[in-house]
Amino acid sequence: MPELPEVETVRRSLAPLAGREVAEVIVREARLRRPLAEDFADRMRGARVETIDRRGKYLLLRLDRQQTLLAHLGMTGTLALGKDEGILRPHDHVIFRLTAGGRLVFHDPRRFGCLELGQGDDFDGVRSLGPEPLDPGLNPAWLHGHTRRRRCPIKNLLLDQRVVAGIGNIYASEMLFEAGIRPGRAAVRLTRAEVSRLFEAMQRVLRHAIELGGSSISDYRDADGKPGYFQLAAAVYDREGHPCRRCEQPIRRIVQAGRSSFYCRQCQR
DNA sequence: CGCACCCCCTGCCGGC
DNA sequence: TGCCGGCAGGGGGTGC
């Protein structure tokens, strides 16, 4: 799944969708993370896409009549514009045919993603999200306000979408390396200086990843089907046993909350 | 409330 | 070569 940088890359690549109208929706597989509503295709017909927004890892396609098509890509989802004549692949679950030709295809082998039609921003998943990590109004004091109240490992806090929206397993490890903080450290025990470093690392890593067009792990592609290139720059993620790019010590892997964390024992304390 | 654990699903990779 | 277990970027539910 795409994390914030990948979803942002998809959002940008969907810009040509603005102003287009949905002629017909074909649901080939309704059993997504949350099953598609029976009347989804009927309600989407004739809708016009106005703009495409992002909140955390969610895409919000603003439609006319205050309607919003909410999309989450889960782990393996893609949302891509294509031509009418292309052959549909396995796991192309929902096809939005556009009136002036072309189509938007929701593809997701693992089906952890979902699509939902609603009004405005009125979705449970969106309501509970914390702020955007690149919001110019945020500062280290804001992050400290969260870390000082939580005893959980700092890695888990970064993954909590209610604290800050859009960080996932890759970038959590990357920003902790950048800040020189081990993923298992209790959030509450971080010093102000460490929280400041982490805040700066969070914004730097995410900005950099967006510039590079997101990560290119396994089946991630943007809406044009182009892979991202962040993996070439990953300092620790999925590099267990490989030498740290700074000190050459082997990168370690631990499991936290059922998910892998990668870090350097030398560079992170 | 916080957190560890387990589940959802398919595909891929490494080990045997 | 082929099969099997483990693991994968997500989130949500349960039970302690």
Q: Give the terminus-to-terminus CA distance.
A: 29 Å
Helix content: 10-25%
Order of helices and strands: HEHEEEEEEEHHHHHEE
Unreliable stretches:
none
Number of strands: 10
- Read across the widest sheet, the strand sequence of neighbours is 1-6-7-5
Class computed from helices, strands and strand pairing: alpha+beta
Radius of gyration: 20 Å
Please describe the biggest sheet, giving its number of strands, its sense, and whether it closes into a barrel: 4 strands, antiparallel
- Strand percentage, roughly? 15-25%
> What is the number of helical segments per DSSP (H or I, 4+ residues)?
7
Overall, the morphology is elongated
Average of the residue pLDDT scores:
93
What does this structure look like?
The protein is of the alpha+beta class. The chain contains 7 helices and 10 strands. The protein has helices spanning 4-13, 40-44, 124-127, 140-147, 154-159, 169-179, 192-211; strands spanning 22-27, 49-55, 58-63, 67-72, 78-82, 92-98, 103-107, 114-119, 252-256, 259-263. A 4-stranded antiparallel beta sheet has the order 1-6-7-5. A 4-stranded antiparallel beta sheet has the order 2-3-4-8. Strands 9-10 form a two-stranded antiparallel sheet. Strand 6 and strand 7 form a beta hairpin. The relative contact order is 0.15. The mean pLDDT is 93. The protein binds a DNA duplex (16 and 16 nucleotides) through helix 6.
